[in-house]
Amino acid sequence: MKIHRAPRFSGFCGGVKRAWSIAMRTRDNTEGPVFVSGELINNDPAMRALEAKEIGILRVGEDESPTQPGTLIMRAHGEGPRSFERAKALGLNVVDATCGIVKVVQQKAVKLEDDGYQVILYGHRNHPEARATIAYTKRGMIVESVEEAEALPRFERVAALAQTTALLSEYERVCEVLKAKSEVFENQGQVCAWTKMAQDEAEEVAAGCDVMIVVGGRKSANSHRLVEVCGQRVPSYLVETVDDLESWWFTADSVVGVTAGASTREQDVLDVIEAITAIGARHGDGTHGSGVAVGERAMAASRGHLSIGPPGIPPDRLEEEVR
Ligand code: SF4
Predict the structure, then answer these.
(1) Distances (CA, A) of 55 to 97, 195, 198, 251
(2) CA nearest neighbour of 280 among 315, 255, 308
(3) CB atoms within 10 A of CB 185
(4) Ligand 1 centre and the CA of 13: distance in Å?
């Protein structure tokens, strides 16, 4: 058995990595309760790890209040102005972990509305990032599909924005519809390049493998998307933890690809690689990858001696302007 891990974009994206570090640092350096403003990331094992470190969830934007003062970390997806106002009113010490790319979109939404545009954001109505961004406007709206854009009335001035993880091709179709419905149209959408690069890399790895394993949360949309992309090449499976692995997916001769969603911790990826290595050994073959036993590499990495894939790239290197 051979194991190939997607080398650059498997695991925490820059924004999530930053938010996670902020949460850990804040917990280590802060007395009293520490909260996050919602699920920091869409990954249950990671959220359980935060809980174990006594970092709770406090949805200030949904009228929740703490029983005693503490520190509130605003999550990477961002929060609307009401959450910041309520946190202040409740006397909470606020640490803002909003991803820089998301912050730029929020600022654009405010400016475009001030300039007289009807702001229309393409994204998911229930996604925290889309909701938070639109919360910075008075009249902004979210459309989830081309059909919803078509159903809108005409506006004199329209500015289009996108949820940062939106599918670019769909967003461009929405823009075409909105452009035809307005006298003046501004395309100010800014899509994060991380998702696209992770998908391209995963597909490339999958093309050289017999089976692909995506480590990611069951609720993580970008992890499911990776499974879809890889599934077009080879049988591909989503695993949240090692417990989800099935030995019948592999044979002694399998070439196994591994990638991970943007909200998957490095340790979860390493654990899965270790477990696949063990399955390979049980199938009667020495498991290896890139000339070094992956099991050894994973163990070394988990001890901090070696990284088998860069865990994150700063968000400011991931911006992709869409105009
Ligand atoms: S915008 Fe990109 S870097 Fe920021 S949190 Fe979202 S996926 Fe991660």
Answers:
(1) 14, 27, 29, 41
(2) 255
(3) 17
(4) 6
Would residue 259 count as lying in a domain? yes
Token look-up 């036993």 returns 293
Is residue 165 in contact with ligand 1, taking CB distance under 6 Å?
yes
* Shared domain check, 269 and 249: yes
Q: Domain check: are 33 and 82 in the same one? A: yes
Say yes or no: CB of residue 14 within 6 Å of ligand 1: yes
Residue of the CA atom closest to atom 5 of ligand 1: 15
Q: Show the domain range for 139.
A: 105-191
- pLDDT band of residue 96 (cuts 50, 70, 90) is very high
Spatial distance between the Cα atoms of 20 and 61, rounded to a whole number of angstroms: 21
Q: Do both 39 and 77 map to the same domain? A: yes
6 and 20 inside one domain: no
Distance CA 34, CA 308 (A): 32
How many separate domains does the chain show?
3
Q: Output the CA angle 42-61-77, nearest 5 degrees.
A: 35
User: What CATH number did the domain enclosing 213 receive?
Assistant: 3.40.1010.20
Prediction ipTM score = 0.99
List, for residues 144-176, the tens digit of each pLDDT value: 999 999 999 999 999 999 998 887 888 999 999
Could you tell me if residue 308 is inside a domain? no
- Counting atoms of ligand 1 from 1, which one is nearest the CA of 14? 3
Q: Are residues 215 and 294 in the same domain?
A: yes
Nearest atom in ligand 1 to 19's CA? 5
Give the span between the Cα atoms of 170 and 196, in whole angstroms.
13
The number of the ligand 1 atom at minimal distance from the alpha carbon of 195 is: 7
Ligand 1 geometric centre to CA of 12 (Å): 9
